[in-house]
Each structure stands twice: as C-alpha cells, then as structure tokens.
C-alpha cells in the first residue's frame, strides 16, 4: 500500500473503533484511536501474515499488551479480512466472540490473549526467544501503553530481551501521555522512556509523530535493519486521534459515545475520509 491508501485504511479503522464502542456502550476508544495508524501499518504493510491462514507457522506475531484497546485491534483485523467488519457491532455483546479483551481461542488473527497490563510484553519476549531457539525467522511485535509501562513486569521482560539480544522483537510504546487516572507524568511518571529501554540494551527509536505514516514507515524499517538487540519504538501519539472532542481528553480513555456523540465522531471521520480521497 502507498501512504495515501494506508491513511484511508486507518480512517476506516477509526470508524470501526467508534462504531464498535458505541454499539457495546462500553470500551476504550482513546487509546484505540491513538494507535490506529500503527495498527494499520503493521497489518497492511509490515507484518508477514495471511488472513486466509491465520495460524500459518511462519507468520509474524503481534501481542496487544495494552489489551483494553482491543477495539483498535479488532477493527484492523476486520479491515484486513480476518472476519466481517459488520461483526464489530457485536463487541462485548453476550455470545459474541469479540470480547472486551483479545481472546486467542476464539478470535481469528489474535496470537495472544491479553488484558492484564504488563503481561503482554512477556509473552512477546517468549515468542521471540522461541523463534531464536528453533531458527525460525518470524518477527514479534508488541504494543504497550505508556501508563502500562509503570508495571514492573514490563522491565523484567525488557531486561531478558536485551540480555538475550532478541533482534526479532519490536516493542512499541503508544506514548499518548494519558492514562485512566490522568496525565502519565502526574500519575507515576515513566519518563525518560527511551533512556530506560536503552539501559536494558534496546535500540531505541523516537517516533516523533506516531500518527504520521511516513514516520511510522521509517521507524519500522530502522527496526528491521537493527541487528543484535531488540528495538523499542517510542511513538508520540494523540489520544482519541481523529475525533475532535476526544483528542487529548483523558475522559475518553474508557467511555463510549452516546448517540449524539457518535454522530459527531462519524461525521469527523467521514470528512477526513473525503479529504484523503481528494488528494
């Protein structure tokens, strides 16, 4: 895909996020929207995957460590063809396979069940180590929240990954600056994030605009070319990106829009889609 196609796809992913959370009357739109561009680049450009064969042995693996942003992952998987886009409306409904957090047993394309914050990166490190032990060449990607990295288990996993020189591992931190209780630097500051990962023998990439496709592409290319150590991409993003009244508003971390708000959000995204299509 070219840059414009990726931008248009990310906008569709955002529509799916807002639709799913509105339909569920619950969920986490803010951090799903901030990561929509990264989700899109991973699944449409970066990773070796096949929606027709979700379990193919040589596929690249993805672990959504910040599992509460499942609406972002689900919307991306649906756009990529793993399951019908229409099913996004069943998010969190009784009997739906689209649970509030990723479930590897029931959702096509989900490689790891997640939701307990801090644990996903450990699973990703295990996958990356497994590939090294069996001489497989698949790569492993995991997305963490900047609030999530306040968890100690994150740094245990980082220490192990750096020590074992897992250069097939890419850790992405969605640094949108807000967590459920407020700004991350006021709740329990994780800064400087990059310096911490460097101390654990990671190659660190400072992605200044994690919502810009060109910068995202450059970051993942640099990660792929890094040998002998894992990579951490610190992606500076906008929480609620793409929806005017959600952007940089901590209240939209875990709240669903009502009918009126949903209409405004979808109009914002419709206009953005039209603007992109005119380029």
Automatic annotation (TrEMBL):
Alphabetical UniProt keywords: Thiamine pyrophosphate, Transferase
Enzyme class of the recorded protein, top EC level: transferase
Transmembrane residue ranges: none
Listed name of the protein: Transketolase
Family: Belongs to the transketolase family.
Species the sequence originates in: Agathobacter rectalis
Domain Transketolase N-terminal stretches: 9-265
Cleaved signal peptide residues: none
InterPro entries xrefs: THDP-binding, Transketolase_N
